[in-house]
Amino acid sequence: xxxxxxxxxxxxxxxxxxxxxxxxxxxxxxxxxxxxxxxxxxxxxxxxxxxxxxxxxxxxxxxxxxxxxxxxxxxxxxxxxxxxxxxxxxxxxxxxxxxxxxxxxxxxxxxxxxxxxxxxxxxxxxxxxxxxxxxxxxxxxxxxxxxxxxxxxxxxxxxxxxxxxxxxxxxxxxxxxxxxxxxxxxxxxxxxxxxxxxxxxxxxxxxxxxxxxxxxxxxxxxxxxxxxxxxxxxxxxxxxxxxxxxxxxxxxxxxxxxxxxxxxxxxxxxxxxxxxxxxxxxxxxxxxxxxxxxxxxxxxxxxxxxxxxxxxxxxxxxxxxxxxxxxxxxxxxxxxxxxxxxxxxxxxxxxxxxxxxxxxxxxxxxxxxxxxxxxxxxxxxxxxxxxxxxxxxxxxxxxxxxxxxxxxxxxxxxxxxxxxxxxxxxxxxxxxxxxxxxxxxxxxxxxxxxxxxxxxxxxxxxxxxxxxxxxxxxxxxxxxxxxxxxxxxxxxxxxxxxxxxxxxxxxxxxxxxxxxxxxxxxxxxxxxxxxxxxx
Length: 535
What we know:
Helix content: 55-70%
Shape: globular
Order of helices and strands: HHHHHHHHHHHHHHHHHHEHEHEHEE
Distance between the termini: 77 Å
Number of helices: 21
């Protein structure tokens, strides 16, 4: 029977006439898949190249042909370019690592860009390579947990063909590289290689700050599995926070400077978007749906089932100072899954993370696939006659989630394309060396333009009344106004007629960019500061 290696009991199950036909069909299907498995096993040299090819083609192609999925990617690209320039000239200093985000991904991409010599593609290619590595790690982790090649191949297919993972593997962002380091750490935990596990955990902690949680998690997991804690591992795990505190102190004179900058940005965001500071039923339902779909319904359910199974066996195991072998194996991925889930939910409930984006579910989806396969086998051990129903349900849920993610990814890429068109127009028509400025509440287009940040003004800088706003535009020598209909945008409140592209004495439409799905409508106006402002 499919995926049944060590979990299915040897004795036969009683079958009734009602399920005899289903059992026959399922057995025939399983036999066919078993032949495929045996064929692969007889040709081991083809297995890994095939896995690399299947995961690599969409990600490498996406790095060249798909736009970045989120505006932050263009900030990363700018940082990568600055770092690589200094590396090439030999002027790079340790303090150049300091910034809004932890530096490892940017540094790796900058080193790659010294040879690639294209800052835009360097970060995307590095992310794509990490995406391929994540797929291979999920295959290896699932194979170790389930002892089933077929389960490992299904787990690999779920991640390799996942639209969301492909989209962000093709984007110059930290989500996929961070997931790779976390998965690599988990892989070595399962193999008992604690030094390598802590090295990759430290690399994850130099990529995203939430992985500093490994400082508590890995020693706890090691103690539960082996009743000991490695001092060397602890010393490695404290490196990321200590290193970042030192960099912050060296570059900004304050070891908490990065976190203060993040808090300032957070406060500004809530000031500009007051609705984000309060929960509404609609916003909670929306964010919950985004998290569940991006994590995958089947993965989320299986993680809670696995957690319940462990909790049932954990107290008696602690009393005996021992755990059943299968529970010891699945303990680490379950602990990591819920640690990252709890961190995200806590940040959301305390408004430190005011919104949930689909990419936040990527780490949970990656950690949860091996748990899904393990839970599937465990349930089929207890309910062997449900084997076909369980597999069909899992596949159906994953296809359903994948379809929603595909639609969402397409819509997100449409929005990004509209924003990119505006950014390209500003880049081509605005003279950054002049004393002119640009007013824009469309942050993604602002970043994509490549124009220095100090050349942009936003609603947070401007008066809220019509006369004051017009005088502000003249005083600041605003040449272009990027109009987007947002509830927190001052131009949208004061000049709602501009969303139709009207021509007036003060504003002349020069560019219009839109996407129908997901909806994005942006107008670029040239500001005539020589006209008489009429409040």
